[in-house]
Amino acid sequence: MKRIGILLLLTLSLFSCKSSKRSKQKPSKDSQVVINAKRALDNYDNNLTNIEVIEEPNEPKLAEEADTKAIAITHYALQFEGVRYKWGGTTKAGMDCSGLVFESFRAHDILLPRISRDMAKKGDKITIRKAQEGDLLFFKTGNRRNTINHVGLVINTQKDIQFIHATTRGGVIISKLSETYWNDAFVEARRIL
């Protein structure tokens, strides 16, 4: 089986029209040789019937990359659970809601605005049914200007959407979107990744 594949590659390389200089160059890290086995069989009309074609992707899938990054971001945010609330805070000494989200994304090389209402202008707006781990939830919690003033990071969507955020009373906590207060204050969900 291995010999057949090698013979096939050699035959294809003999009929190649590349110059010798070009073929002696080292292949780049991102280069990939793709062989269309069916066309090779048709062109050379041999009696091979069992050719196994193994395709390796050239680049990692973007969705998988985003999922992995989302998990890393949420795990990073969870380390702050129990930290006291501090307006403008971004450390374990004290943190506010946008500081928690800002730091969790920044730790993974994604820069977001520092204020929740500005964060709500980034990424793509999604329906709550499509919310996934790493998405952001935005709220209006009764401020005078009737603008977004609170943000949470989705950490779990099993059964009920759970999010981590910082509140003035409880510090960094995990809440459920189904809780009456948060459900009534909810404005939108956005996907950054």
UniProtKB/TrEMBL annotation:
Molecular function (Gene Ontology), one example: cysteine-type peptidase activity
One Pfam family matching this protein: NLPC_P60
GO biological process, one term: proteolysis
Coiled-coil spans in chain: none
Keywords, comma-separated and alphabetical: Hydrolase, Protease, Signal, Thiol protease
Signal peptide: none
Residues covered by the NlpC/P60 domain: 66-193
Keyword Signal tagged: yes
Cross-referenced PROSITE patterns: NLPC_P60, PROKAR_LIPOPROTEIN
Record flagged with keyword Protein transport: no
Domain of life, source organism: Bacteria
Family, as annotated: Belongs to the peptidase C40 family.
Protein name: C40 family peptidase
Organism: Aestuariibaculum sediminum
